[in-house]
Amino acid sequence: MKSYLERNPLLYPPEPSGDAGKAGHFAIIPVYDENAHIYSTLASVKTALIRSPEPVKVILVLNEPANAPAGACQRNRELLASLQKNDGKYDGGLSVGRELFFINLLDKEIKTKFRTVGNARKCGFDGALHQIDGQVTDQNSLLFSLDADTLVSPDYFISALQYFRLHPELAGAVFDFEHRLSGIRELDLAAMRYEIYLRDYSCKLKNARSEYWFWTIGSAFACTARDYMRCGGMRRHAAGEDFYFLQALRKVGRIGVVPDCRVYPAGRVSDRVPFGTGPAIARQLQGEMPELYNPDSFELLKAFFLHCETLEYDQLTGAITGAAETELQEFFQTLDFDCIWAKIVRNTPRCREKLLEALHIYCDGFFIIKFCHWLEQQYPGKFARQKMFSDELLAEKLHALRQECALLA
Fold first, then answer.
1. 285, 315, 335: which is the final residue of a domain?
2. Is residue 409 one of the residues assigned to a domain?
3. In sequence order, which residues have a C-beta less than 8 Å from that of residue 309 and are 6 or more positions away?
4. Pick from 18-27, 52-61, 133-142, 360-369: least confident
5. Which of 58, 138, 187, 234 is most solvent-facing, going by the fewest CB within 10 Å?
6. pLDDT band per the 50, 70, 90 thresholds, residue 19
7. Are residues 248 and 343 in the same domain?
8. Structure confidence by residue, pLDDT tens digits, 29-50
């Protein structure tokens, strides 16, 4: 913990300051122009805290991009003033200074490239580390990642705390999710399509025996404080920070699924980030429908991983790509994988399980996405994406995928 905190000093401490913020667990919520949603989000967190067997503190990170519209800037400062005055307008019933804290990044001198949601999350997570009681040398302290428009189940904290206690080997876990519907047909259909896209991809990854099958949603994961530091902390990207972080987190430990509870992101149009729920819905309203990755792409990976699992250590140290299907062999050749694998073998302990783990560390989520895109370009007829389901089938297909995802852990 000490070395991470030395490399990442506390530049923006949570307010109000003092020992009241000391706790073992923290929930981090970046906030940008969310006055219309933040009260409801915090109210749902309050309900979950009542059921929590251990105290959890909440840190809001008020942030805005360099080009934020004047109206958004005004609303951000209205929220900040409300929290500073503790007038109860936006706190969801949480006690400011006891349960709820905030980090103000609004008027700080931050480089334009770091005025991102990723940097806001990082400031919140790092701020929490400085507040945690004692030395974080084990898995006991949890960090929860939420969004300002996301409601949580009443059992959100108790389910997560129990799950991590039952599975101390975990570095992190994702929460099941369900986009809230607005009652506006086109918006709701768009939210359903995007959720189908996310779940379909995770199920295909899991079926392919990838260790990176989990969905990456900023409002739907938690991790141990120790493993947060071990993987280098939150990434500062303008979008996709959740994906980049969870990729790194999986490389230091397993990731599971918290059972028996969900988070509920808003299914709405948003241009806050380049991609994610809001932009995905906006693109659909402009006529750009999401398509599903071709299942045959994942069958190639599955066959390769299954074959490698049958090999003994001495066999794994050789040119393992020879057993891959033709298309996967060709992709490996573009990466000069045989040379890379020889180096991995040299730098990995002489243990079959360690070598298989090293293979999956290399064949991570980035690798799989690049492979799928490469197949689409090289074999457009054979590995083309599949059209989204018709509107009449969306509810049925989404229900089936939710049930399938519940079994992924």
1. 285
2. no
3. 209, 356
4. 133-142
5. 138
6. low
7. no
8. 999 999 999 999 999 999 999 9
Q: What is the largest CA-CA distance in the chain?
A: 67
Shared-domain flag, residues 242 and 331:
no
Does the residue 396 lie in any domain? no
Last residue of a domain, one of 254, 285, 316: 285
CA–CA gap between residue 389 and residue 386 (Å, rounded): 9
How many Cβ atoms from other residues are within 10 Å of residue 360's Cβ?
Answer: 17
Residues 103 and 250 in one domain: yes
Q: Total domain count for the chain?
A: 2
| pLDDT the model gives residue 272 | 55
Helix (H), strand (E) at residue 58? strand 56-62
| Per-residue pLDDT at 304 exceeds 90 | yes
Which of the pair, 52 or 22, is modelled with greater confidence? Answer: 52
In a domain, 243, yes or no: yes
Q: Is 147 left (phi over 0), alpha (psi -120 to 50) or beta?
A: beta
Q: Please give the model's pTM, rounded to 2 decimal places.
A: 0.93
Each residue of 249-264: pLDDT tens digit? 999 999 999 998 999 9
Q: Extract the tokens encoding 145.
A: 């990642």
**Contact in structure between 103 and 13 (CB atoms under 8 Å):** yes
Confidence grade of residue 407 (pLDDT, cut at 50, 70, 90): confident
The answer as to whether 344 is a domain residue is yes
Q: What does the alpha-carbon distance between residue 249 and residue 373 come to, in Å, rounded to a whole number? A: 24
For the chain, the 3-state helix, strand and coil shares in percent, each to the nearest 5, are: 50, 15, 40
The domain that holds 161 is classified in CATH as: 3.90.550.10
For 108-160, the three-class secondary structure string (H helix, E strand, C coil) is CCCCHHHCCHHHHHHHHHHHHHHHECCCCCCCCCEEEECCCCCEECCCHHHHH
**Strand-pair category, 56-62 with 100-104:** parallel
- Asked if residue 272 and residue 304 are part of one domain, the reply reads no
